[in-house]
């Protein structure tokens, strides 16, 4: 568990972060979101002591981070940033091996770990390991950036707008991959972003910041249903909130037994793992108020109606 | 007809025409009554019956044609390289003949025709070499082999009758002077690196240090070298007279000490400013990632910052190296030693070939140094690609 207690950082008279309190449970993805200059990056950098707080404490699993030298602390925390910052003079292999080498792992351990991570990111060892970063696409570079951050098996990873520079398609694919990897490894991630879609897609908890203050922290659903007046409700959007809410849940949560509807061979179908937003989109596209829901094996396992979707997305009273 | 014209290499054509004119119009060698007096030019028309010229001439023609019309770079390079070697052989052979019925003090010296051809053929070869886009190490090896071939020709005694080589054989300490030349260059650059690189890093980190240091170093650069030697002579000779112990270590108003000190001061600006520029150009994301992953300050410096700034730093070293090889020659005037000694002796005796004996090795050293550093820069840049 990560606890930020009364964290404040001033630059001269300006308080970049003002008395911030936040708890992030182990195994969660927490998104710090806000406009640029709201203090979200400063907050992140105080967790690995790239910036020291003016006052307040950061506890990781109950231990004050100031109890150890900054270099040692940072080697235990994964760190991935927007520009990626791969070392251009070192191969993909050497880049990933950076922190394990700093920690003095044996070359067998490092070799095994690099293989493991490239596997995890679905990148072929033989074709990627010995390339220089300049020979990689933007998405591949960012994947290697994530692999490098995960190299020394950290329990916590800090990410500063890691997908900001990528095209929308690549960004979405990497977000999904990151979510899978995070669930697989059970690590905690604190992620800085200015993109509410990204926060909703990835995070278990969203912390909204403005002017150095924490305005609201909540699960995505709660944030969409009950945003605080003003900045937060502007951020989560007006009418678009309905669609964002739908995108939070999968069809399997809301589907009804197939027998309730008269399905025929012409009824369009959709996979149960898709989101409710996907279901609504398909209903509009196919002009069909009811969809057949299929399981992984392709068998019909239920049905979803537009009526039900509409009721879920309605404006909170 | 048009398609042929379109295939003409304009640079090749210009160089070819110029070298053809030089060969026909300018004297290849001069026949002098003795070492000092100017001689008479001997043109190709008086030499061409010589057997080796009969091989040289067709090869020369082929070189010009291939430079003008051919897209095949390798033949262009090889033919012009072979033509130059044959010119050296042909000239060597013809001197014996020219000197046959001359008085014993008569000399054959190289004429304006030869130097022009050397320059133009050199440009043809350089042009082909650049267009070949070879990998850095093989290119360096190729140039080394070619220079080695020329040295072998000279060492074989082929040119021993030519005035320049006679001057060389008169100088017993030619190679020692070369060593001394290099020692002066290294002796000024190594301390400049030891002080300039850390200073450049400081300039990168602190704008205030930069604002204080760079203008001073630029001002030093503007002082002409002879004025600088003069300026340094006064305090150094004062030092030497007040502390006799110092002069035993060679610290005197004239000699190596002011030369080294002046070259050291000149070297600082390119080293400091290129180091600072190299560090300024580093990607901030790379540095932030290095820090965020837990590299210590020293690890970041040695493993990330220095390797990435190295190409820019090396181009500073290239400037300093070629500059100092030339400036050491000037230091010959104040008794610093090195090839400059021959230049000033030769000027004093109006013996042109002795001046050349000082000039040519200086140019060659600068050329080799520049080429070596270029190879290093290419290798370090390839690291990041």
Automatic annotation (TrEMBL), chain A:
It comes from the Bacteria. Residues 2-236 form the ABC transporter domain. Keywords: ATP-binding, Nucleotide-binding, Transport. It holds the Pfam family ABC_tran. Signal peptide: none annotated. GO terms for biological process: quaternary ammonium group transport. InterPro entries: AAA+_ATPase (IPR003593), ABC_transporter-like_ATP-bd (IPR003439), ABC_transporter-like_CS (IPR017871), P-loop_NTPase (IPR027417). GO terms for molecular function: ATP binding; ATP hydrolysis activity. The keyword ATP-binding applies. The keyword Repeat does not apply. Belongs to the ABC transporter superfamily. This is Osmoprotectant transport system ATP-binding protein.
Automatic annotation (TrEMBL), chain B:
Residues 178-373 form the ABC transmembrane type-1 domain. GO terms for biological process: glycine betaine transport; transmembrane transport. The chain crosses the membrane at residues 47-65, 77-99, 105-125, 137-159, 179-201, 213-237, 249-269, 354-379. It is found in: Cell membrane. The keyword Transport applies. Belongs to the binding-protein-dependent transport system permease family. This is Osmoprotectant transport system permease protein. The lineage of its organism: Bacteria, Pseudomonadati, Pseudomonadota, Gammaproteobacteria, Oceanospirillales.
């Amino acid at each position: 568990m990560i606890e930020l207690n009364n964290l404040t950082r001033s630059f001269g008279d300006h308080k970049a972060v003002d008395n911030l309190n936040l708890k992030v449970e182990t195994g969660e993805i927490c998104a710090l979101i806000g406009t640029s200059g709201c203090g979200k990056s400063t907050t992140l950098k105080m967790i690995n002591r790239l910036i020291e707080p003016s006052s307040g404490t950061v506890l990781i699993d109950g231990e004050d981070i100031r109890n150890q030298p900054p270099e040692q602390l940072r080697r235990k925390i994964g760190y991935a940033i927007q520009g990626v910052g791969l070392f251009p003079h070192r191969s993909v292999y050497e880049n990933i091996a950076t922190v394990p080498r700093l920690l003095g792992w044996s070359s067998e351990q490092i070799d095994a770990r690099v293989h493991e991570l490239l596997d995890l990111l679905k990148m072929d060892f033989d074709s990627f390991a010995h390339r220089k970063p300049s020979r990689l696409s933007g998405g591949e570079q960012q994947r290697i950036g994530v692999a490098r951050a995960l190299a020394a098996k950290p329990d916590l990873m800090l990410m500063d707008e890691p997908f900001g520079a990528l095209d929308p398609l690549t960004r979405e694919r990497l977000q999904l991959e990151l979510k899978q990897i995070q669930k697989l490894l059970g690590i905690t991630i604190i992620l800085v972003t200015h993109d509410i879609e990204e926060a909703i897609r990835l995070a278990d908890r969203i912390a909204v910041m403005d002017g150095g203050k924490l305005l609201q922290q909540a699960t995505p659903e709660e944030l969409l249903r009950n945003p605080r007046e003003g900045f937060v409700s502007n951020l989560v959007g007006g009418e678009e909130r309905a669609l964002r809410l739908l995108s939070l849940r999968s069809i399997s949560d809301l589907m009804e037994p197939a027998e309730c509807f008269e399905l025929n061979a012409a009824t369009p179908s959709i996979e149960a793992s898709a989101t409710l937003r996907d279901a609504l989109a398909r209903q509009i596209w196919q002009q069909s108020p009811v969809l057949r829901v299929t399981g992984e094996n392709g068998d019909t396992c239920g049905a979803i109606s537009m009526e039900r979707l509409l009721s879920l997305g309605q404006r909170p009273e | 007809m048009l398609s042929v014209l379109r295939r003409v290499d304009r640079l090749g054509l210009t160089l070819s025409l110029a070298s053809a004119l030089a060969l026909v119009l300018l004297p290849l060698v001069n026949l002098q009554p003795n070492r000092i007096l100017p001689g008479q030019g001997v043109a190709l028309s008086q030499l061409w019956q010589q057997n080796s010229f009969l091989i040289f001439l067709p090869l020369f023609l082929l070189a010009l044609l291939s430079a003008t019309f051919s897209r095949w770079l390798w033949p262009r390079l090889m033919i012009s390289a072979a033509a130059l070697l044959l010119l050296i052989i042909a000239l060597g052979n013809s001197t014996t003949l020219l000197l046959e019925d001359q008085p014993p003090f008569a000399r054959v010296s190289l004429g304006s025709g030869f130097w022009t051809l050397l320059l133009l053929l050199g440009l043809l070869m350089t042009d082909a070499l650049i267009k070949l886009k070879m990998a850095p190490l093989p290119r360096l090896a190729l140039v080394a082999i070619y220079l080695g071939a020329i040295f072998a020709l000279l060492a074989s005694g082929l040119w021993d009758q030519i005035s320049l080589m006679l001057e060389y054989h008169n100088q017993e300490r030619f190679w020692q002077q070369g060593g001394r030349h290099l020692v002066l260059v290294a002796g000024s650059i190594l301390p400049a690196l030891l002080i300039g690189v850390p200073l450049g890093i400081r300039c990168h980190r602190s704008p205030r240090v930069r604002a204080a240091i760079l203008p001073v170093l630029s001002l030093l650069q503007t002082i002409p070298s002879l004025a600088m030697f003069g300026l340094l002579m006064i305090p150094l000779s004062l030092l030497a007279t007040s502390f006799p112990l110092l002069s035993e270590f060679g610290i005197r108003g004239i000699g190596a000490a002011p030369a080294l000190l002046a070259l050291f001061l000149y070297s600082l600006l390119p080293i400091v400013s290129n180091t600072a520029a190299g560090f300024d150009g580093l990607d901030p994301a790379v540095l932030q990632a290095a820090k965020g992953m837990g590299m210590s300050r020293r690890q970041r410096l040695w493993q990330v910052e220095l390797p990435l700034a190295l190409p820019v730093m090396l181009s500073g070293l290239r400037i300093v190296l070629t500059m100092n090889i030339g400036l050491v020659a000037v230091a010959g005037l104040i008794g610093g030693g090195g090839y400059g000694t021959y230049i000033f002796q030769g000027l004093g005796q109006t013996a042109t070939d002795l001046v050349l004996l000082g000039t040519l090795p200086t140019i060659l050293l600068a050329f080799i140094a520049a080429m070596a550093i270029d190879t290093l820069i290419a290798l370090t840049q390839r690291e990041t690609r």
